[in-house]
Amino acid sequence: RKEVEQDPGPFNVPEGATVAFNCTYSNSASQSFFWYRQDCRKEPKLLMSVYSSGNEDGRFTAQLNRASQYISLLIRDSKLSDSATYLCVVTGDSWGKLQFGAGTQVVVTP
Amino acid sequence: DAGVTQSPTHLIKTRGQQVTLRCSPKSGHDTVSWYQQALGQGPQFIFQYYEEEERQRGNFPDRFSGHQFPNYSSELNVNALLLGDSALYLCASSVDRGQAQYFGPGTRLLVL
Hints:
The complex is a heterodimer of chains A (110) and B (112). Chain A has strands at 4-6, 11-14, 19-25, 32-38, 45-50, 55-57, 60-65, 70-75, 84-91, 98-100, 104-109. Chain A is an all-beta fold. The termini of chain A are far apart. Chain B has strands spanning 5-7, 10-13, 19-24, 31-37, 44-50, 53-57, 64-68, 74-78, 87-94, 102-103, 107-111. In chain B, a hairpin with a 7-residue loop joins strand 9 and strand 10 (102-103). In chain B, the strands form 2 sheets. In chain B, strands 2, 4, 5, 6, 9, 10 and 11 form a 7-stranded mixed beta sheet that branches. In chain B, 0% of the residues lie in helices and 51% in strands. Chain A binds chain B through residues 4, 31-32, 34, 42-46, 49, 87, 91, 94-103, and chain B through 31, 33, 35, 40-45, 48, 55-56, 58, 90, 92, 94, 96-106.
């Protein structure tokens, strides 16, 4: 079983719509959680950290469910520029070894 | 404020050769991690350097080695290159070991 699993998609989303997707992780001792976005042939860029109480950054909302060991990302009012691969990232311990999912591809269409 | 920089951007090598990739962390960051990303996959953790020492290592063979310098910059060395080493090599830095990491643009390595 992979340590971090994501639905690869693609999620085809009309512009202005809402899209949500999850990621599950296997290590119950994981301490930190992040969403990164990666554009084609570019480096991953930090989108947001995910906190236990859930957090929002503009049109993006992240949730953490420790009991079920998943995190989620919701994008409201999707823009064409939101088209990217979204990487779920979990740290296995305090040393900061990031464990990445394979990514969920989102395609926003006009 | 310069972000994470890496050099070279692209590299072509042949099997059996050795390669050295370089990374300068974001200003104020002291921890550097290296990742390998194959096409269609998420980045895979190679190792992490803090205080000039390798602190953690992923499931990569000893052919992969590294170094961190007093100015926090880092090198990744790969010996006896295999075709399967062809990938995007990413360097990431953070202000502390458990904090969010910021990535450089990567080095694309092609092994022929």
